[in-house]
């Protein structure tokens, strides 16, 4: 979970200023949390305190309204409606990392990823995107190797994980769809050597930097056994106390 938040904060300055290199400062005065972090913490809050997910997502968005939400999501969050809006965007996947850490069985992972995605992203691609990221985290934290993670995600979700980032990077562009950003973010993890490298690789594609780095960072955290202290410290310094309380409670629970 903290890996996702770190990826979001580090990637925030490159979301609309794409970079095609891994050589960049990890943190700057402009580095800040976005909607990815807000909704990730909301998911964790709903899980550990058994809250209604729909109401919790709306509450967090209203408390932090200026964090770069997608137009359709923000309209939904500010409305009285609880009906989903058939989104296929990667917003379902950017917020899902707590699910991959919280549950101990694959069946639960897939069930809750579906449930927590489909309150907004009830399009099949939106649901499968959340499931793919949650399952990758689950596999990573339970001892699966990268070959097994690649094979499982490819077979269950029909994602093409055969290309290399060096092949993808030159022509890759900003893409908020699950199909056009989640496989690439997973590849950043698969090619990584540690958490920091996974985040750097995801951002270096020059796409939806904060979200892709959040996804890669979350899986990397699970696989490598945590977030390095120098990244965790800088990340926590940029978060509200209310978020830190939920995050600490979440890690105590898992």
Offer a concise description of the structure.
With 254 residues, the protein is mostly helical. Helices cover 62% and strands 0% of the residues.
Write the topology of this structure.
Elements: H1 2-11, H2 35-48, H3 53-63, H4 71-77, H5 91-94, H6 97-102, H7 106-117, H8 124-141, H9 146-157, H10 165-168, H11 178-190, H12 195-203, H13 209-224, H14 229-237, H15 241-253
Helix pairs in contact: 1-13, 1-14, 2-3, 2-15, 7-8, 8-9, 8-11, 8-13, 11-12, 11-13, 12-13
Structural class: mainly alpha
CA-CA gap between termini? 11 Å
> What is the top-level CATH class?
Mainly Alpha
Main sheet properties: none
Task: Spell the H/E element sequence.
Answer: HHHHHHHHHHHHHHH
CATH topology value:
ADP-ribosylglycohydrolase fold
* Overall average residue pLDDT: 97
**Spans with pLDDT under 50 lasting ≥5 residues?**
none
Instruction: Specify Rg, calculated over alpha carbons.
Output: 16 Å
Number of domains: 1
- Say how many strands there are: 0
Question: Shape, please?
Answer: globular
**Fraction of residues in helix:** 55-70%
Number of helices: 15
| CATH architect. name | Orthogonal Bundle
